[in-house]
Design goal:
- It is a single chain.
- Helix content is 35%, strand content 32%.
- The chain has a 5-stranded mixed β-barrel.
- Strand 5 and strand 6 form a beta hairpin.
- The longest helix has 16 residues.
Length: 185
């Protein structure tokens, strides 16, 4: 399926929710088409002038007029996608073919350290946690690891590597090491 691409330094994975301000005409068009056709768009990362290989198919779940008159949208990650045949249209909007990747396999329980630390992070940042309302899944290892990967300051090549994985095992180990080192220091 061919979808519009929204390149941002923002990293969002399935189940993730965030808000965006829309002001460039090409992205106003992207939002209009996404809403009219109910097909969403891809939140993609850029490396220099190129769009990265992997992104997240998102849907618009809410919209509002912001105090400055701009359009605000709330998006939710649906699935990881692999991009191909990426092109830029005359107005600057990026488009690409998408191949939906399967959800991460669930292979183990959520380590208590990861879920408790994420709960503490959400309590410390209620404005972020409030976006999830009733969608907090601290017992789901995939959900917990995906939220951690969204907030950790990772380089694009690291983000691309994690998004391409078939399960959360490497992410779980990576985050556990980081948290353990933080506790020890």
């Amino acid at each position: 399926m061919q979808l519009g691409l929204f390149p941002l330094p923002l990293f969002l994975l399935p189940g993730g929710i965030t808000k965006l301000r829309i002001f460039e005409p090409r992205y106003v068009r992207l939002v209009k088409e996404s809403m009219a056709e109910q097909k969403g768009f891809v939140l993609a990362m850029k490396e220099g002038d190129a769009i990265c290989t992997y992104g997240t198919h998102v849907q618009i779940i809410d919209f509002e007029t912001l105090p400055d008159g701009l359009l605000g949208i709330t998006i939710k990650g649906l699935s990881r996608v692999k991009l191909s045949h990426i092109d830029q249209e005359d107005d600057g909007l990026w488009i690409g073919n998408t191949e939906t990747l399967p959800d991460w396999l669930t292979s183990s329980a959520t380590p208590r350290l990861l879920s408790e630390a994420l709960e503490a992070l959400f309590k410390a940042h209620p404005e972020h946690a409030s976006q999830y309302s009733d969608e907090l899944h601290f017992n789901d290892v995939n959900w917990v690891c995906q939220r951690w990967l969204e907030v950790l300051p990772l380089a694009n090549n690291q983000r691309q590597w994690f998004i391409a994985q078939k399960d959360a095992e490497d992410a779980k180990q990576f985050i556990t090491v980081l948290l353990t080192e933080e506790i020890q220091n």
